[in-house]
């Protein structure tokens, strides 16, 4: 194991973690505000990728793909929350079952619309190359993912920590009833958070689709990762989602590099450990 | 036992026998009905694109002959396996018990092949495997009632290992493959002939099937490797070839692969990252014999895409079954004779070339060395060399070969790692 091995693998882990952050931050916030375990969250990732793919085919623009893909899925998220989940407010089991129903419908719909062939989303030339530092080489695109995630994380943190809306969201996470009592429009807030979560997941889907591909089954492949991140980091906590994503990205990467036979173990064992020692996750509050 | 009970029992036994006799279709009546072909294919789930190719290939041939042979109609009954062995077995039971198919065919996963073996042998139902490629299905654990019309994993890899040593300067090769039977058998076949020529496999990396991000594995490829040999399929292939280039490896270390990694089921969705990849398989959509050109054209017209090996093998498989039906004059109810006819098909003009079946039930057929090239804007597997009539045992004596253990994760051992 040379120094080179550790540097490259760390970078790989960080960039995978960055992608996981886009996916999991929304899931975490949605749970925090609405106490909904959204099993359709992986579907937003997959659908975002597919919509992005169609946009790239039509327009050739990667930026448009990210934007349109994320917005389209945010709209789907809004419709899902407003028309369906809202009716089951407070019924945890009903909501979970409904989200898994949606996940299955989305899966079949995607198969119907885009067929079963796997695709990758083409990226613009400048992002395609390799960054070299001495003997080390890193794919440019992975550095791009890290930058995007860092920007999103900063914006989210500023919004949550420094704005009135952010304060309201934090209030709703802490105690939705009390927040409602002091005049915060919690239903509207929930809707906004749900849309934001879908937006971020779909954005991750388009960006991830360029190196992981877009294919049937991607939804349920990424979902466990998102849950591990949220459980490790703590439900409803933004710093938790950040730390959780990086931790899971690194663990998964080093797990696969060092003990490929135990790839699921190295991912889920730490989760079980954290659940046992700190049931609320690293940053969660009871 | 009283007399009365004895009489009742006898009566009951007689009635049961009569019932069975009535319900069993008489040979004459069955002859008039259609010949039923049961096809197992994954139509939903992650492998659905492959399942669609399988169905399209099968239907294309049956439609060419008007779904009729030897004076009888052919009825194709398709069941969705969902890409799941348990479901496949349930559906196979349904096809045999309920639909009473005369022949069973299809299947995708190696595990499905092993699960079907005891079932079809117990049911004595003639069966063909156009896709499932695990070596032992026709080596150490053959089934009497199964004829493989497709290929086996290591068949084309024996050829590739030999060809690479003799036609390139690569002497030290690192392998990376999907961590399950298909990957092990493909890498094993390549390693065996490459090393017997004097080459060295200096590293064997196994990526779990749940891999999305190959960077942890790509970062480990040894610096002194002359080339990398990869074994993937479906979306894993798409991800791997893309990330191989992204990691900056392609510019430095040429990529070799098994057939499925650059099969036409994924090649059209790849970009220039696939260019130059050398692989081997018993088929390429770019084969320029007249039968294949006609087939490829007809398939594109039907399915709107280039035929993959899954499409060709199911087209050939359908023709195979029809030829056997012709040989027995449509009398598929005589299962033993029908099975013998399935094993005896020997034709020169399949899209992939001439094919016949060896004593273990595996095809003897051409193996093509292919190179990914761009022709009029599209990627294709250009054939650069043809090895005629290759058996699953390559140039080895079958009895000797079968004494060797099955290729696995650790066999052949990596002597130069």
In short, what is this structure?
By secondary structure, chain A is an all-alpha fold. Chain A has helices at 3-34, 41-59, 62-83, 92-114, 140-162, 164-174, 176-181, 186-209, 218-233, 238-258, 263-277; strands at residues 130-133, 136-139. Chain A has one domain (12-216).
Could you explain how this protein is built, in words?
The complex is a heterodimer of chains A (286) and B (417). Chain A is an all-alpha fold and 286 residues long. Chain A has one domain (12-216). Chain A starts with a helix and ends in a 9-residue tail after the last helix. In chain A, a hairpin with a 2-residue loop joins strand 1 and strand 2 (136-139). A two-stranded antiparallel sheet of chain A has the order 1-2. Chain A has helices at 3-34, 41-59, 62-83, 92-114, 140-162, 164-174, 176-181, 186-209, 218-233, 238-258, 263-277, and strands spanning 130-133, 136-139. The mean pLDDT of chain A is 91. The radius of gyration of chain A is 19 Å and the shape is globular. Chain B is α/β, with parallel strands linked by helices and 417 residues long. In chain B, 40% of the residues lie in helices and 22% in strands. Chain B contains 13 helices and 15 strands. In chain B, the strands form 2 sheets. In chain B, strands 7, 8, 9, 10, 11, 12, 13, 14 and 15 form a 9-stranded mixed sheet that branches. The longest helix of chain B is centred in the first third of the chain and has 21 residues, at 3-23. Chain B starts with a helix and ends in a 14-residue tail after the last helix. Mean pLDDT of chain B is 92; it is low at 13-30. Classes of the chains: A mainly alpha (286), B alpha/beta (417). At the A-B interface, helix 1 and helix 10 of A face helix 3, strand 8, helix 8 and helix 9 of B.
């Amino acid at each position: 194991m040379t120094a080179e091995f550790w540097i490259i693998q760390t970078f790989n882990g960080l960039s995978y973690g960055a992608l996981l952050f886009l996916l999991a931050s929304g899931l975490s916030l949605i749970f925090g505000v609405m106490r909904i375990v959204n099993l359709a969250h992986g579907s937003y990732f997959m659908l975002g990728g597919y919509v992005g793919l169609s946009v790239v085919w039509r327009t050739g623009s990667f930026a448009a793909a990210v934007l349109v893909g994320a917005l389209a899925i945010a709209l789907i998220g809004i419709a899902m929350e407003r028309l369906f989940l809202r009716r089951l407010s407070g019924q945890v089991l009903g909501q979970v079952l409904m989200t898994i129903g949606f996940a299955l419908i989305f899966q079949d719909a995607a198969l119907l619309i885009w067929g079963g062939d796997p695709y990758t989303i083409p990226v613009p030339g400048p992002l395609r190359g390799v960054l070299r530092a001495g003997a080390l080489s890193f794919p440019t695109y992975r550095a791009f993912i890290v930058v995007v995630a860092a920007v999103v994380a900063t914006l989210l943190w500023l919004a949550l920590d420094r704005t009135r809306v952010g304060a309201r969201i934090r209030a709703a996470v802490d105690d939705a009833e009390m927040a409602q009592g002091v005049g915060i429009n919690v239903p509207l807030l929930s809707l906004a958070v749900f849309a934001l979560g879908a937006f971020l997941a779909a954005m991750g889907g388009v960006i991830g689709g360029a190196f992981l591909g877009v294919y049937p089954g991607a939804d349920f492949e990424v979902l466990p990762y998102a849950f591990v991140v949220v459980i490790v980091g703590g439900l409803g906590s933004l710093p938790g989602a950040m730390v959780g994503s990086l931790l899971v990205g690194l663990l998964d990467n080093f797990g696969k590099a060092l003990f490929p036979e135990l790839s699921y173990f190295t991912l889920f064992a730490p989760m079980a450990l954290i659940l046992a020692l700190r049931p609320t996750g690293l940053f969660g509050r009871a | 036992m009283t007399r009365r009970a004895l009489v009742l029992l006898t009566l009951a036994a007689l009635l049961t026998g009569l019932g069975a006799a009535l319900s069993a279709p008489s040979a004459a009546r069955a002859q008039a009905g259609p010949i039923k072909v049961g096809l197992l294919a994954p139509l939903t789930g992650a492998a659905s694109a492959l399942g669609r190719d399988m169905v399209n290939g099968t239907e294309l041939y049956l439609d060419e002959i008007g779904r009729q042979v030897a004076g009888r109609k052919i009825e194709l009954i398709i069941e969705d396996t969902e890409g799941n062995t348990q479901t496949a077995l349930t559906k196979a039971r349904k096809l045999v018990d309920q639909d009473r198919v005369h022949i069973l065919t299809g299947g995708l996963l190696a595990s499905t092949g092993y699960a079907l073996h005891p079932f079809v042998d117990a049911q004595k139902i003639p069966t063909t495997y156009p896709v499932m490629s695990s070596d032992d299905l026709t080596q150490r654990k053959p089934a009497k009632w199964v004829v493989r019309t497709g290929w086996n994993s290591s068949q084309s890899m024996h050829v590739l290992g030999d060809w690479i040593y003799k036609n390139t300067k690569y002497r030290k090769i690192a392998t990376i493959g999907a961590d399950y039977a298909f990957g092990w058998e493909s890498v094993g076949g390549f390693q065996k002939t490459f090393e017997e020529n004097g080459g060295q496999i200096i590293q064997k990396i196994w990526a779990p099937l749940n891999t999305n991000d190959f960077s942890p594995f790509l970062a480990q490829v040894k610096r002194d490797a002359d080339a990398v040999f990869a074994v993937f399929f479906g979306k894993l292939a798409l991800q791997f070839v893309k990330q191989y280039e992204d990691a900056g490896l392609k510019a430095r270390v040429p990529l070799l692969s098994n057939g499925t990694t650059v099969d036409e089921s994924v090649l059209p969705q790849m970009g220039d990252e696939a260019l130059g990849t050398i692989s081997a398989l018993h088929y390429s959509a770019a084969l320029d014999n007249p039968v294949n050109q006609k087939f490829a054209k007809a398939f594109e017209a039907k399915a709107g895409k280039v035929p993959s090996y899954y499409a060709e093998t199911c087209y050939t498989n359908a023709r195979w079954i029809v030829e056997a039906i012709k040989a027995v004059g449509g009398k598929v109810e005589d299962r033993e004779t029908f099975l013998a006819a399935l094993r005896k098909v020997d034709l020169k003009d399949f899209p992939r070339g001439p094919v016949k079946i060896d004593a273990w039930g595996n095809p003897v057929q051409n193996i093509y060395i292919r190179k990914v090239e761009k022709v009029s804007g599209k990627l294709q597997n250009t054939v650069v060399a043809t090895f005629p009539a290759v058996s699953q045992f390559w140039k080895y004596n079958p009895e000797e070969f079968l004494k060797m253990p099955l290729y696995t994760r650790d066999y052949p051992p990596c002597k130069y790692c």
